């Protein structure tokens, strides 16, 4: 499975880049800090947008569940790059990952995909980029697509991922929660731009896929297929 290559010329290095320093911040403080940060980037967000759920209201995913999910996504991306579906399914079964596939993902096998479904699978690279950030393996660049070297952060396709699954650790959940809030607000801005025609540097497809990942990790929705992306 080969991830697409893109020019990468602007990256955020750490939570401090977003003006986030106080780990005890409540959801309103997080919201206001992220609005201020986005404003400094030229992205205006109304303060009327609600706060996201607090960590205490959520049930974050376990590290190994996140590891399994990103490995599964790597195989789903294979559909977007004409990998043999039989080979993909055989690997998922061989490494006990079939049960980690969602209902919709299992439904991709055994039939011909529509052109849009193939395109959708290629967009999953942005979910993987968000997972790479959450595992502290890569940075997040909100204005560019996934890293050229993204695949290098994960086990090679068709190889045993058990060591990765058993050992990889997420960033502190409060950092991921803050990033999820940021993506909620960026998603609003990108979608508003599409609806109104107002100029915005953010690309909705990139932000929505990454937001889905972050929201799933922090526990907004346990079912990958049903993660809400309303703004």
Describe this structure in words.
This protein has helices at 27-40, 63-80, 85-94, 103-106, 115-134, 162-167, 173-196, 204-218. The chain is built from eight helices and no strands. Helix 2 (63-80) packs antiparallel against helix 3, helix 2 (63-80) runs antiparallel to helix 5 and helix 5 packs across helix 8 (204-218). Helices cover 48% and strands 0% of the residues. By secondary structure, the chain is mainly α. Mean pLDDT is 90; it is low at 1-24.
Write a compact overview of the structure shown.
Helices cover 48% and strands 0% of the residues. It is mainly α. Mean pLDDT is 90; it is low at 1-24.
Secondary structure topology:
Layout (H helix, E strand, L loop, with lengths): L26 H14 L22 H18 L4 H10 L8 H4 L8 H20 L27 H6 L5 H24 L7 H15 L13
Q: How much of the sequence is in beta strands?
A: under 5%
Q: What is the β-strand count?
A: 0
Can you summarize the main beta sheet? none
Order of helices and strands: HHHHHHHH
What keywords describe this structure?
mainly alpha; disordered N terminus; 231 residues; 8 helices
């Amino acid at each position: 499975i080969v991830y697409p290559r893109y020019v990468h010329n602007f990256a955020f290095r750490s939570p401090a880049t977003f003006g986030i320093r106080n780990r005890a911040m409540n959801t309103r403080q997080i919201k206001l800090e992220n609005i201020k940060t986005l404003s400094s980037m030229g992205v205006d967000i109304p303060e009327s947008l609600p706060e996201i759920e607090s960590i205490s209201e959520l049930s974050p995913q376990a590290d190994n569940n996140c590891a399994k999910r990103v490995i599964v996504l790597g195989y789903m991306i294979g559909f977007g790059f004409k990998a043999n579906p039989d080979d993909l399914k055989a690997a998922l079964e061989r490494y006990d990952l079939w049960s980690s596939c969602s209902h919709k993902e299992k439904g991709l096998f055994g039939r011909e995909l529509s052109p849009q479904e193939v395109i959708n699978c290629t967009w999953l690279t942005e979910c993987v980029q968000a997972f790479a950030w959450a595992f502290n393996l890569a940075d997040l660049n909100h204005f560019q697509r996934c890293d050229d070297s993204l695949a290098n952060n994960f086990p090679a396709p068709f190889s045993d991922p058990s060591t990765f699954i058993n050992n990889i650790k997420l960033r502190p959940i409060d950092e991921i929660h803050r990033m999820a809030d940021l993506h909620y607000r960026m998603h609003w801005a990108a979608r508003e731009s599409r609806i109104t025609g107002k100029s915005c540097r953010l690309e909705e497809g990139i932000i929505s896929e990454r937001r889905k990942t972050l929201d799933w990790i922090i526990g907004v929705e346990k079912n990958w297929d049903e993660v809400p992306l309303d703004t």
